[in-house]
Write a structure and sequence with these properties.
Blueprint: H1 16-21, H2 29-37, H3 46-55, H4 57-62, H5 67-71, H6 76-85, H7 89-104, H8 109-113, E1 122-125, H9 141-156, E2 160-165, E3 173-176, E4 182-185, E5 196-198, E6 208-213, E7 216-227, E8 230-236, H10 244-247, H11 258-278, E9 285-289, H12 296-308, H13 312-321, E10 323-326, E11 337-338, H14 340-354, H15 358-364, E12 376-377, H16 378-384, E13 388-391, H17 394-403, E14 419-420, H18 427-430, H19 433-442, H20 454-457, H21 465-493, H22 498-504, E15 513-518, H23 534-542, E16 548-553, H24 561-571, E17 583-586, H25 591-600, E18 603-606, H26 618-624, E19 628-632, H27 637-640, E20 647-649, H28 658-682, H29 691-704, H30 710-726
Parallel strand pairs: 1-2, 1-9, 2-8, 9-10, 10-13, 13-14, 15-16, 15-18, 16-17, 18-19, 19-20
Antiparallel strand pairs: 3-4, 5-7, 6-7, 7-8, 11-12
The structure holds pyridoxal-5'-phosphate.
Length: 736
């Protein structure tokens, strides 16, 4: 019987909810707190976060919001005493009970809608996971998306296990020097302070995996982390048996050259499948989130051939039917490509076992299989080894079909079999506590269980405009306090004068229209577009009646020199008297900085060069909290903007000349701010309320929050991809 036999339930190997729940029998307060800290479920439960913070607010902040590190500073006795002092017992017991219930309930969306997946989980592969700021194994949008995906899979009860790499130095920490130039610092993560433990085989032994290359074996150990009901497995090459160089293979995210990259991807894909087997997990679906894990199906094919004696072609066909591939990159240079030498060195031994020639293997990664000049592309192998592929927004789907049309030269563009599932964000992770409380008061009971449904969100219109505005202002003030704290810390570190440090404690004004911009400083995102006409910008910042102020944050990739120059330009704006201290830059953009920004700004700005933004998700986070988007009609915003729920830059077209596009988009950006945003924002009634603005906020929330939630996204993946793929139903990709 094949490993994908669709009589799934009959041989269900394990119940993951139960497996993840083993050991929840804590009795003392200390043990209960530790149990809460050891399941990342806490990261999207404000009442648990508040608990940890209340134990020691200062250390909580200093320890990057890491509850295990915090709890380790207490002895059980001192923790009991502190909990008594702060009257935390009932809150701790309640949180612990809720976690226990969450882990054991079988009343989930998937139990009703996706029972067919019950026996065998979906295996979700991703090179990064952004779950919380205390777990720095993500760099940006892709990682945060993966984190939100598995959190929603957990919430919906979709049986899913996730596979990634453990980077013990993660992505870099960013500091700017006196000139505003980015320096990167890599900090060792303390494993003992993360909620990880060695993954064990069914016989109780710690799991290691070994992948063969032409010049030696590559070893990894496997960690496991609980993300609610989802188990996340992370492979880590820092083990005995590896050369000193290979022990560092997984220390940094996107840190190395091509050789390091292919070795990381070999470990993620092939090592990841081997880890699943060692765990006794036989997935019904393999979901490759981006091309990094594109080698994974080769290992599944090898197994299938070895176990059942089928031919390579038959095994490929069958494995591909169970494989789902998501592509995220409309930038041609953004797709990993490797030359034949690197491929043969790393995939050679596997190729021997598959019984295919070097040319055949290379052909799997080439648009034209016979073209010897063409390198091996991870997106191409992803497309060729899956029978379901999707882009991450409607517009990105269109761009992607065009981009890969030459893989199906006999088809017209509309028939290229790449669909789209638009990205979304995990609402409980990004919604401010104050907003949650507001929605709790006005939305139907237990609305959080139905947050992917449209009608829940129509209740936003029942809320009193003044109450919504007041809540928004509370959040805006919290953002300003955060900005002042961070900027004065930055100034102190750079050794700036007491005057400057002191004045940074009064930066920005809560009554001024505040525009935020936070994302990677890749040049196509054009962080400096709003600075292209300095006089016009200065007029906007300094208007006597209706001024604006700007908050920026974002890292550039260490090798992206032009991106670093953009940062310099933005960061040095504070030295330009024309800008009157109304432009600030916050260092070290991460999930924490992002959360503050999207919860507190009035307007969230996004101005990529169209159509290079596949989806974008930060604007979706802003929606939930009542910020209005001001964005190019690219990615998700092209399908979200309705005319009364935010603001569009440009008209959804771009010119062949980047220079002309940039000039037109800048003009439209200024005009939209001057003619639409400022008049509506500053049009106040006698109570100081901007009624039309608040109406826009409500439209934005009611129209967009549910559609661009990761619950909706994971429901879409489940219905459109996972269930058909688990049943081996093939959509007609028909690729050779
Ligand atoms: C949400 C998020 C992103 C993604 O932002 P985009 O809108 O896709 O540019 C990047 N980094 C962090 C830390 C995030 O939280």
């Amino acid at each position: 019987m094949g490993q994908f036999d669709s009589t799934l339930a009959a041989e269900a190997p394990m119940n993951h909810a139960t497996a993840a729940n083993v050991g929840m029998t804590e009795n003392t307060i200390y043990d209960k707190c530790m149990a809460l800290a050891r399941n990342l479920w806490w990261a999207w439960h404000p009442e648990v976060i508040n608990l940890f913070r209340d134990l020691d607010p200062i250390r909580w902040r200093q320890l990057d919001h890491n509850p295990i590190a915090l709890l380790k500073e207490f002895t059980p006795e001192r923790l009991e005493a502190r909990a008594a002092e702060m009257v935390l017992f009932s809150r701790i017991n309640y949180a612990y009970r809720r976690l226990k219930e969450y882990m054991t309930t079988n009343q989930t969306w998937a139990a009703t809608n996706a029972g067919v997946l019950g026996g065998r989980p979906v295996a979700y592969f991703s090179a990064e996971f952004g779950i919380h700021e205390s777990m720095p194994i993500y760099s940006g949008g892709l990682g945060v998306l993966s984190g939100d995906h598995i959190k929603s899979a957990s919430g919906l009860g979709v049986p899913l296990v996730a596979i990634g790499l453990f980077y013990d130095q993660g992505y870099f920490r960013q500091q700017l020097d006196d000139e505003g130039y980015q320096a990167e610092e890599y900090v060792d993560t303390k494993v003992e302070n993360l909620p990880m433990e060695p993954a064990l085989a069914p016989d109780g032994a710690p799991i290691t995996v070994c992948v063969d290359t032409r010049n030696g074996k590559l070893h990894a150990k496997v960690w496991q982390l609980k993300v609610g009901r989802v188990m996340l497995y992370l492979l880590d090459c820092d083990v005995e048996g590896n050369s000193p160089e290979d022990r560092e293979l997984t220390s940094r995210l996107y840190g190395g050259d091509e050789r390091i990259r292919i070795r990381q991807e070999l470990m993620l894909g092939v090592g990841g499948v081997k880890a699943l087997r060692a765990l006794g997990i036989y997935p019904s679906v393999y979901h490759l989130n981006e091309g990094h894990s594109g080698f994974a199906p080769l290992e599944v094919i090898r197994e299938r051939m070895h176990d059942d004696g089928v031919s390579f072609d038959d095994a490929l066909r069958e494995v591909a039917q169970h494989t789902v591939f998501t592509t995220h990159t409309p930038v041609p240079a953004g797709h990993d490509r490797f030359d034949g030498g690197l491929i043969e060195e790393h995939l050679g031994p596997l190729r021997d076992q598959l019984g295919i020639s070097y040319q055949q293997l290379m052909g799997l990664g080439r648009v034209e299989p016979q073209n010897e000049g063409e390198p091996f592309c991870m997106t191409v192998i992803g497309l060729k080894l899956s029978r379901r592929a999707n882009a991450v927004s409607s517009l990105h789907g269109y761009v992607t079909r065009r981009m890969w049309a030459h893989l199906w030269p006999w088809r017209v563009e509309e028939e290229i079999p790449i669909g789209h599932i638009t990205n979304g964000v995990h609402i409980p992770s990004w919604l401010a506590q104050q907003m949650t409380a507001l929605y709790d008061r006005h939305f139907p009971a237990k609305w959080m269980y139905r947050m992917g449904e449209a009608d829940v969100w129509q209740h936003i219109h029942d809320i009193d405009p003044g109450e919504l505005w007041e809540t928004h202002h509370t959040l805006k003030n919290l953002l300003l306090a955060f900005v002042r704290r961070r900027v004065s810390r930055q100034c102190r570190r750079r050794g700036e004068s007491d005057d400057i440090v002191e004045s940074s404690r009064n930066l920005l004004d809560p009554n001024i229209l505040t525009i935020g911009f936070g994302r990677r400083f890749a040049t196509y995102k054009r962080a400096t577009l709003i600075m292209s006409d300095q006089d016009r910008l200065s007029d906007l910042l300094n208007d006597k009646e209706r001024p604006i102020q700007l908050v920026f944050a974002g890292k550039a990739h260490p090798k992206d020199e032009p991106g670093k120059q953009f940062i310099k330009q933005v960061a040095n704006a504070r030295k330009n008297p024309k800008f009157n201290n109304r432009i600030v830059y916050i260092e070290d953009y991460d999930i924490n900085v992002c959360r503050h920004l999207i919860q507190g700004v009035d307007v969230w700005l996004n101005n990529p060069r169209m159509p290079l933004e596949a989806s974008g998700t930060s604007g979706q986070k802003a929606v939930l909290n009542g910020a209005l988007n001001l964005s190019i009609l690219d990615g998700w915003w092209a399908e979200a903007w309705s005319g009364n729920n935010g603001f569009a830059i440009g008209n959804g077209t771009s010119h062949v000349s980047d220079e002309i596009t940039d000039r037109r988009d800048a003009e439209s950006l200024y005009k939209t701010i001057e003619e639409q945003i400022i008049p509506i924002y500053y049009d106040r009634d006698v109570d100081g309320l901007p009624h039309q603005w608040i109406k826009y906020m409500m439209n934005s929330i009611s129209q967009l929050a549910w559609r661009f939630s990761s619950h909706r996204m994971v429901m879409d993946y489940t219905m459109k991809s996972y269930i058909p793929a688990a049943g081996g139903l093939s959509c007609d990709m028909n690729l050779r």
